[in-house]
Each structure stands twice: as structure tokens, then as C-alpha cells.
Amino acid sequence: MENKIEELTLLLLYLTSWKEEEFSDTMRRSWKGYSFDALNQLTDQDYLRGDKKSKSVYLTEAGIEEAKKLMEKYFVGEMYRE
Fold first, then answer.
1. Within 13 Å of residue 57, how many CA atoms lie on the same side as its CB?
2. pTM for the complete prediction?
3. For the segment 14-25, what is each residue's pLDDT rounded down to a tens digit?
């Protein structure tokens, strides 16, 4: 169950993220209003980065790629229903 929570947390972080330009780089940021255990696990897997005191995190390239795979995993049935 913990694995699904982490997957869905990453997916929600991606789906609610926005692009932000900083120092000529574009990154995807998201508010971190989710389980700290899940956020810590995703940070340990290098899918997220950010300051512990900050209210938002940014998704790494690996995190964005994993989130896109999760979209296919969880939404593939939805695409064919419409």
C-alpha cells in the first residue's frame, strides 16, 4: 500500500505542478501538501528536491519521467473510454 501512496503522491505532485523559470532553467514546482513520509521517500528516490522549510518542492527530471509513466499506468483505461 505504501508503494501506491508514493506513486499517487508523485502523480498528484506532477498533475498540480507549474513551470517556473529560475536562473535560465525551467523546472516544475508543486505544493507539498501531502504525507511527509511519502514526500521523504520520493526525495530519497531523487524524484523531488527542495528545502524542508519550503512549502513547495520541485520535480527532478527522473521524477517527471516517472510521473509520466504513472499517468500511463493509471489513466490508460480513461483514454479509451472517451
1. 25
2. 0.84
3. 999 999 876 666
